[in-house]
Design brief:
alpha+beta; 6 helices; 6-stranded antiparallel β-barrel; Elongation Factor Tu (Ef-tu), domain 3; 27% helix
Length: 362
């Protein structure tokens, strides 16, 4: 008979039974072994705290209107705080450079028309066998070159701020315009006016900042230990303004200054009470079904890869398997089936563990 195998199986049975059963230990035995207990409670790291957050405009909901030509701002039609619609005229710019661009466009337009006539004529001559195909191909190449030059000039006018409608009206008879109307690129509110009427501006200089203020983002700073607790989609509230939304991003980039976790929430309710750049206090709702407890780290007993607590019961202790979520100083955040009203052993754990594993006497 293999006595070593039998002994090993017996030990496994003892350990398995011990894990499931209470550890019987009288009060006097507990006192003699130096066993003491402490209370546990619900963790408040995330559920009962308010975290600082900044209101920002989401990416894609903000535009800066700038000038693509140097010139003089002779008219402004909107000011900070006003609502604007996409395509609405917001300013007028007088620019000498714009005249030069229009001249280039009209010249390219004339050249293309001449090239088109030559191309059409040579196509007929080729069909009649009057000219060689080589001449036709040269005329075709010249026409395509003029077409590309016209497209380039038209694109330059677009970049200068002229609309397709205004460009289509350009011709030698009507003359050229020295001014251009600037339009709002999106629906939204004018958040900032950066120039005044009569001011000279250089190419690329910003005139207005326009933003769409619904929805808004919250940039939240939460304790780093909360990383295991938060999940995308969790409800987020700004209690002071009755605003709410949900968590949309957990940014794995820790703030070096205060070692906080960067979270982002999208606020969709009551955004009218919030403004970009505003600092607020926010609450993250972990959900009613999520229960996390705090215990001293010294109460945790490791057995293999598992973590256990010894909860005090009548006549001894009961082993409870727990899941470690995070650490906060001398405390551990755990997920378990406990209610938070129990008491757990904090000292004399070696003696309890020995009895638990059947290595000592009860």
């Amino acid at each position: 008979m293999n006595y070593k195998l039998l002994a090993f199986i017996t030990l496994l049975l003892i350990v398995s039974f011990a894990h499931a059963a209470d550890i019987v230990m009288t009060s006097s035995q507990q006192q003699n072994l130096g066993i003491t207990v402490v209370g546990i409670g619900k963790n408040t790291m995330m559920t009962s705290r308010r975290f600082p957050a900044e209101i920002v405009i989401p990416i894609g909901q903000e535009r800066v209107v700038s000038v693509s030509q140097s010139g003089l701002i002779d008219q402004l039609f909107v000011a900070a705080g006003q609502q604007v619609k996409k395509g609405q005229t917001i300013a007028h710019l007088i620019s000498a450079d714009l005249v030069s661009l229009q001249k280039d466009y009209l010249q390219a337009l004339t050249k293309k028309k001449l090239a088109a006539k030559s191309f059409a004529r040579d196509a007929e001559l080729l069909n009649g066998g009057i000219i060689a195909k080589r001449r036709y191909l040269e005329t075709e190449s010249a026409y395509e070159e003029m077409s590309a030059s016209l497209s380039e000039s038209k694109q330059a006018l677009r970049l200068a701020g002229m609309s397709d409608g205004a460009i289509s009206k350009l011709n030698s008879a009507s003359g050229m315009s020295s001014g251009i109307f600037l339009e709002a690129p999106i629906d939204g509110q004018v958040l900032e006016q950066m120039v005044t009427t009569g001011q000279r501006v250089d190419m690329g200089m910003p005139l207005y900042r326009i933003g769409r203020l619904h929805p808004l983002w919250l940039e939240i700073h939460a304790p780093l230990e909360g990383l295991p607790l938060v999940k995308i989609g969790m409800p987020v509230q700004v209690p002071k303004f009755q605003a709410s939304g949900k968590l949309i991003a957990i940014i794995r980039n820790v703030n070096k200054a205060d070692q906080t976790l960067h979270l982002r929430a999208e606020i969709t309710k009551n955004t009218d009470f919030l403004s970009p750049g505003q600092f607020v206090e926010t609450v993250i709702n972990l959900g009613e079904k999520t229960q996390y407890l705090s215990v001293p780290k010294s109460t945790i007993v490791k057995q293999g890869a598992d973590a256990w607590l010894f909860t005090q019961v009548k006549g001894g202790f009961h082993p409870v398997k727990v899941k470690l979520i995070a650490e906060q100083g001398d405390d551990a955040v755990i997920d378990s089936s406990l209610t938070g009203s129990e008491k757990v052993a904090v000292s004399g754990l070696s003696a309890i563990k020995g009895v638990w594993l059947g290595l000592g006497t009860k």
